[in-house]
Amino acid sequence: MEQRYATSPEHVPGMDTAELRKRYLVQDLFVDDEVKAVYTHHDRVVLVGLSPVTVALELGTFPEIASEYFFEHREAGIINVGGAGTITVDGTEYALATGSCLYIGRGARAVVMASSGATGGADAARFYVFSAPAHTAYPTTLVAAGEGIKRELGDPLTSNRRTLNQYIHENGVKSCQVVMGVTQLHPGSMWNTMPAHTHDRRTECYLYFDLPADARVIHIMGEPSETRHLVVGNREAIVSPSWSVHSGVGSASYTFVWAMAGENQAFDDMDGFPIADMR
Ligand SMILES: O=C[C@H](O)[C@@H](O)CC(=O)C(=O)O
Ligand SMILES: [Zn+2]
After folding, report:
1. Interval 27-51: pLDDT, tens
2. Per the UniProt entry, what is one GO biological process (predicted)?
3. Residue-range domain boundaries for the chain
4. Ligand number with the minimum distance to the CA of 197
């Protein structure tokens, strides 16, 4: 598990491109037949990518979380960003088509992920895990792709028409901290989260997917008065600390998983910034 300690906004102006990418961009989460994990100390979020191509993979524990099993003190929201697959939690199998979401509550012991009938890397399941500490156990719950609460946002005329699906949230699947969903850009729309916002109460991560291999998202981060950008490829994640804006524009349409943890779970507890006020 890679360890990344938390950073403060005063650090950002002194960072060059390589350091910004090292701290806030997560690449290589999805490696065939491997479990790849990053511990970001922002709100103690752990990101894990599991890519079961030829073998099933277990989400086991890591020395860095000092737990007997991964979910001893944690919960997670999981989105399948690859082909069809299954997650088996203590003997109960859940089928996840592309874009489906599984919440796993504290206390789950044996968590095994597999592809359904994959014949190679291209159609293998790719499970993206966003985990945070949990104080109690909520039931493990599956939400099929598109079955959460939908919000239609933006306008094609400003290239930000998108459908936001809320899966784990206050009025949906219950959790201690994790709030999670998937936002899909409509064809021809390129901007997410515009106008942009921060939420000083929560850390958020975006995992961009369904982006063509040669396309990129220019992801904007930093305090609204001091922004920087990251050039992000398919199935790469960004860490947005509580003080950072998070918004992006693609060179092609894409979909992304957003997930948060922190002080509260109030989706609308955010501070918006008109782009004219950003620097
Ligand atoms: O705090 C909420 C998150 O940034 C996302 O839900 C925003 C988003 O998906 C969008 O506007 O497209
Ligand atoms: Zn946000």
Report:
1. 999 999 999 999 999 999 999 999 9
2. pectin catabolic process
3. 2-277
4. 2
